[in-house]
Amino acid sequence: MKMENKELLTVKEASRLLKINEKKVYALVKQGRLPGTKATGKWLFPRGELEEYIRRMALGSLRKSFWESLAQKKVILVCGSDDPVIAMAQGLFHGVEPDLLLFSTSVGSLEGLRMLGDGFCTAATCHLFDHEAGDFTFPFLGEYFHDPQEVVVINLFHRNIGFASRGVAVSSFKDALGMDLRFVNRQRGSGIRALVDHLLEEEAVDPARLTGYDTEVCTHFDAVRRVVDGSADFAVASEFVAAQSRLPFTRIFEERFDLVVKRDDFFDRHVQAFVEFIRSEPFKNLVRTLRGYSERDTGRVMYPRQDGSRPPRHDTLSPH
């Protein structure tokens, strides 16, 4: 059992441990910021508590440095939809821009847009598709931004999304019901969850009949892992992630995966460095070498579709 350090230090010894002068020690203890006790007219300080104070101060300095870097826009926070390319790009970007850090979190497309609208991140990733409008991302901006013109949408890549299954190929939810297969779903607000709900409605399948519909995970890898370990029989995931586990894959469609940035921030030099990185050959080469991806629009500023065209129905899509 670890013994608590009860050693008591004088003011001089405490000042040496804390690397501050004795006057500063007196000032801190009078402010109640240092643990100490007065005995026979002299201040004494428990070494263990002083060491804990040093650890707290070091952690506080680290946090302060991080938030100052964030305030200075040296940290680029990307929130929204999940994709392995984002994680792969973090180290690659830092290698190109060593003074900048890229962090990402998989919270779902809708939550990413909300966080961007509220000013909690630098950019959002989104692949939401409006089947009525026949367009990605743009139909959803009005809910989180007073004027959709206040954001810039940049394409990161296109990717294949489909059914990843164990043992037998799945081409529809009706097929899965007929085979009594267990499903693993994605979290509410994610683009994959929106696609799943659309397909179920299109196929006239009641979600309550689908075993596992209420089982939620937050990433493609989590969904595929559930299939691989046998806790589920199929999921909707990207072709790349399914291929990593050598699972049968039936394509549903190819979707556009976008980065959304506030227009006021778009020309910030750090954001521009990230945009230029997206347009660079190293990033495009990363995308093109991964199975199920296309870099044909990577780095392009996107605009709402004007032709009113609609995507093909799910039942006309061929396996890939």
Task: Give a written overview of the molecule.
This protein has 320 residues and is of the alpha/beta class. It has two domains: 8-65, Multidrug-efflux Transporter Regulator, Chain: A, Domain 2 (Orthogonal Bundle), CATH 1.10.1660; 73-316, D-Maltodextrin-Binding Protein, domain 2. The protein contains twelve helices and 15 strands. It has helices spanning 11-18, 22-30, 47-71, 84-96, 109-117, 173-178, 191-202, 220-228, 239-244, 263-266, 269-278, 281-288; strands at 8-9, 37-39, 42-46, 75-80, 101-106, 123-126, 129-130, 135-136, 151-165, 183-186, 216-217, 234-238, 249-262, 293-294, 301-302. Strands 4, 5, 6, 9, 10, 11, 12, 13, 14 and 15 form a ten-stranded mixed β-sheet that branches. A three-stranded antiparallel β-sheet has the order 1-3-2. Strand 2 and strand 3 form a beta hairpin. The N and C termini lie far apart (60 Å). The model is unreliable at 308-320 (pLDDT under 50).
Give descriptors for this structure.
alpha/beta; 3-stranded antiparallel β-sheet; 15 strands; 10-stranded mixed β-sheet; elongated; disordered C terminus; Multidrug-efflux Transporter Regulator, Chain: A, Domain 2
Q: Please summarize the sheet with the most strands.
A: 10 strands, mixed
CATH architecture type of the largest domain: 3-Layer(aba) Sandwich
Quickly give the structural class: alpha/beta
N-to-C SSE string, H for helix and E for strand: EHHEEHEHEHEEEEHEHEHEHEHHHEE
Low-confidence stretches: 308-320
Task: Please give the domain count.
Answer: 2
Kindly, what is the distance between the CA atoms of the first and last residues, rounded to a whole number of angstroms?
Answer: 60 Å
Shape category: elongated
Supply the CATH class of the largest domain. Alpha Beta
